[in-house]
Design a protein that fits this description.
Layout lengths: L1 H6 E10 L2 E10 L6 H12 L18 E4 L2 E4 L5 H4 L4 E5 L6 E3 L2 E2 L2 H9 L22 H8 L8 H5 L1 H5 L6 H11 L7 H8 L13 H5 L6 H22 L1
Parallel strand pairs: 1-5
Antiparallel strand pairs: 1-2, 3-4, 3-5, 6-7
Length: 245
């Protein structure tokens, strides 16, 4: 019995859909260098083929495999079991703050809809017929833009955000970081449109600066710093308009 406990994991998986769900326990063989995604895949392949989850690259580039692991949002392909194991147990659930489609797969539409709301789309300064503009890669603005450019839309920061949990309309750290990236991009026009989009009742000033987004970002980005930058710029914009009114 003691040997069995050492060679197997007790894995609890949240099963269900938008109407609710329940926990289900699986006994999974333990292996060296095993990832959480390995565990989920084993359950689907050898125990219950109806288990629904999402993944693609398996090497931490696509972000599609993010789930809640023992209550924390993580990329499951890059999270090793021995780093998060609680005794001999694991609890795996869908990302929080997003609607559940089925089991461990969530609907990402609200996440991406907020990118659009935050004007997280490029507003070009030139057309394809214009010569390519040369940008100084050492400029302060380019450095700020580069700081968040490696976001791969995994939604880990969104799931970690307690402000989103308490206010579903809040744009969230990823959308605001994207807005800050574009605000600092010399090739992006109409910065005021971005500031107007992120300064409303669901925008950057809702952030409580708790830092969960930065703490959990698997790419070591700093969305909290981006939100702070937007807070400064929207405040400047407000007082400029008051002065010129």
């Amino acid at each position: 019995m003691e040997q069995a406990e050492q060679t197997h994991l007790e894995v609890t998986v949240r099963r269900g859909d938008a109407d609710g769900g329940k926990d289900e326990v699986f006994r999974v063989p333990a292996h060296d260098n095993q990832t959480i995604l390995d565990v989920v895949s084993w359950i689907q392949q050898y125990s219950d083929p109806t288990l629904t989850y999402r993944f693609a690259c398996r090497v931490g580039m696509c972000g599609s495999c993010a789930m809640m692991v023992n209550g924390e949002p993580r990329w499951t392909c890059r999270t090793h079991v021995n780093k998060v194991l609680d005794g001999n147990k694991l609890h795996i659930a869908p990302l929080r703050n997003l609607p559940v489609i089925k089991d461990l797969a969530v609907d990402m539409d609200p996440f991406f809809d907020k990118w659009v709301e935050a004007e997280g789309k490029h507003h070009p300064t030139k057309t394809r017929d214009d010569p390519i503009e040369q940008i100084n890669p050492e400029s302060a603005e380019r450095s700020e833009a580069n700081a968040g450019i490696e976001c791969i839309n995994c939604s880990v920061c969104y799931a970690a955000c307690d402000t989103v949990a308490g206010n579903p309309d809040y744009l969230g750290p990823a959308a605001l970081q994207r807005a800050w990236t574009l605000f600092n991009d010399a090739k992006n026009e109409d910065k005021q449109t971005i500031l107007d989009a992120v300064s409303g009742t669901s925008g950057c000033h809702n952030c409580h600066s708790m830092g969960s987004c930065t703490h959990y970002c698997p790419n070591d980005l700093n969305p909290m710093a981006a939100v702070a930058g937007l807070k400064r710029e929207t405040a400047k914009s407000f007082f400029r308009r008051r002065k010129n009114a």
